[in-house]
Amino acid sequence: MKIKGVLIGISPLHVIVSLFCLSMFAITGVGMGDYTIIGWGVLFAIVLLVIPAYNSYSVSKSYEKLLPEYERESKYYRIAGIHDAMLGKPVRIRGEVEKVKGKLICRPAFTINDGSCSIVAQHGVPIDLDIKVGDNVEVVGMVVKRFTFFGKMVIHLIGIKKTDKVESPEDSDKKRRRGKNRNRDGKADNADKAENTENTDNTGNTENTDNKEDTAAETSDEPSDEKNDETPKEETSAATGKSD
Predict the structure, then answer these.
(1) Domain co-membership, 92 together with 158
(2) 42 burial class (0-12, 13-18, 19+ CB within 10 angstroms)?
(3) CA-to-CA distance for 155 and 190, rounded, in angstroms?
(4) What CATH number is associated with residue 112?
(5) DSSP state of 166
């Protein structure tokens, strides 16, 4: 069942407990002739179902918020390389599902093997994927102890998805490095293009400035030529007057 796009799960055990309590209230109410007891039993049974449903919803929402952060900060590890010093750290593993359990109580746990070792990845709420034995999966989560302070190390599963094939951490690191190199090359190309564009603009501005200066110089030369043309005329007229 989904509420606002969030998958919630109610364990069959919760339903059984609710029905058992409701039946006890009903028997008591009928035996005493007080049917209000049955009404209280119905309310109590509803509460027994609402509490786990709300808990499942809130946990699923918190997983959705944490998943982008874990995907960004987690690194790929071989399962055999996970040790006690990594407790509380985000990790990412890939492997084949060997065993699936806990679906009946809405707390699925997957035993995953990547060829080096196996580990259990357990989730606190149902997942919206049909994962079976033999599927290749990628898991993002945090390394924890099975029973908080003791027990074997397990992965507290935050996100899981199916993959076509299982890649080693070394192959994943190579792909990540190639992607970074491509991004750097792309940024360098963009910087060169921007620099060339800027140089082209500067060259165009310089040419425009030179053209403006040439135009201004030609304009300033024109009046002087007119004055030079007028001066001989005046001298000629003066000479003509004297001769007369």
Answers:
(1) yes
(2) middle
(3) 42
(4) 2.40.50.140
(5) P
Structural domain contains residue 141: yes
For residue 227, tell me if it sits in a domain: no
Residue found under tokens 């603009």: 201
Which of left, alpha, beta for 118 (phi over 0: left; psi -120 to 50: alpha)?
beta
180 located within any domain: yes
Together in a domain, 55 and 8:
yes
The beta-strand segments (E) located in the chain are 2-3, 6-7, 75-76, 90-101, 109-113, 118-122, 136-145, 153-162
Which tens digits make up the pLDDT trace of 159-217? Answer: 998 887 665 555 655 665 676 666 666 665 666 666 666 665 555 555 555 555 555 44
Q: Enter the pTM of the model.
A: 0.60
- Report the C-alpha gap between 47 and 158 in whole angstroms: 28
Q: Which residues pair with 154 in a beta bridge?
A: 144
Q: In 3D, which of 171, 166, 46 has the Cα closest to residue 97?
A: 166
Residue 193 lies in a domain: yes
Provide the token pair at 69. 């952060």
Average pLDDT over the chain reads 77
3-state class (DSSP) for residue 193: helix
Parent domain of 29 = 2-67
Nearest to 155 by CA among 92, 68, 63: 92
Domain boundary among 15, 40, 67: 67
> Tokens at residue 157, please?
């599963």
